[in-house]
Design goal:
This protein has about 70 residues and is mainly α. Helix content is about 75%, strand content about 0%. It contains 3 helices and no strands. Helix 1 runs parallel beside helix 3 and helix 2 packs across helix 3.
């Protein structure tokens, strides 16, 4: 599920290969890193998807900020 969320986030950010990779990595890292933090955001699957989306969004944003510099 993390991979699907990452691909969607990368595609929405521009669809370039680097955005797709950043989205996938961000979803994996975000989903795993946020798994034990904070309250549950819904059911187990919904919670994982939301946290993966947060990680993917942050990774794509970071990539865009780095590319502008």
């Amino acid at each position: 599920m993390f991979l699907l969320v990452g691909v969607v986030a990368g595609w929405m950010a521009g669809g370039l290969v680097m955005h797709l990779v950043a989205g996938i990595l961000g979803a994996l890292i975000g989903g795993l890193a946020l798994a034990g933090l904070g309250p549950s955001l819904g059911g187990a699957l919904l919670d994982s998807v939301i946290k993966a989306a947060i990680g993917a969004g942050l990774a794509v944003l970071l990539l865009r900020l780095i590319k502008r510099s």
